[in-house]
Design brief:
The chain is 91% helix and 0% strand. Among the domains are: 2-70; 149-189, no CATH class. The model has no long low-confidence stretch (mean pLDDT 77). 0% of the residues are buried. The chain has nine helices and no strands. The chain has 234 residues and is an all-alpha fold. It has helices spanning 2-66, 72-84, 86-127, 129-146, 149-157, 159-169, 172-190, 197-204, 207-233. The longest helix has 65 residues, at 2-66.
Length: 234
Amino acid sequence: MEQALAASDLAALHEKLDLLAGQVQILTDQARSASRRQAERDELLQDVIPIADEALQLVTVQLEEVQEYVDLCDVLRLVKRLLRNGRNIDKMLDQLESLMDLARTVGPLTDSAFEKATDLLQSAERRGYFALARGGARAADNVVTSFSPEEIEQLGDNVVPLVNVMRDVTQPQVLNLVHEVISKSEVELAQPIDTSLRSLLGQMRDPDTRRGLVLTMRVLRVIGAQAAGQAAGK
């Protein structure tokens, strides 16, 4: 009986010793972990302290350069404003992020539009649109410098009649007639000129010559009538 109790006590003692050994192992591991963390912190401090010293020296030098322009009250007031407007700054950053997303989305489209615009401008340059525009600018400059302000004002008042005249002159039948007259006149002017009376009488017998004289006289009659009307109006 005593041997059984002794064996039971011995087993309980071994169990307590095992439990104590486990707890000691846990404490040992925790101590090792704490020691390792402490060593890491010490190593980090050893690395950070020189950097912090250099940063502090740099900040000190920079502050010395601007200390006459900066007041501590101004800095505190700026910090307070930043703190009060924290939400507004956050909203502004959100909007900035949205704009950046929009820029990333629209960027390819704008690049394509820019390329098309560049191609269009190059095509216009090759076709001479820019040269025409430069010539028109020089012509407009010549008009402005050649006329007085009163004459330019009169020109502006008579733009509509001038446009009507240009419209009538640029009719296809009128342009064709002018082209035919100029081309055939060049051929006639290139031939020898005979001013003798016989030659003149011979030309008068030509039906085309007589028709031209009749048309010329009609035009002269219209011009004379218009001139008489303007003279009577004055």
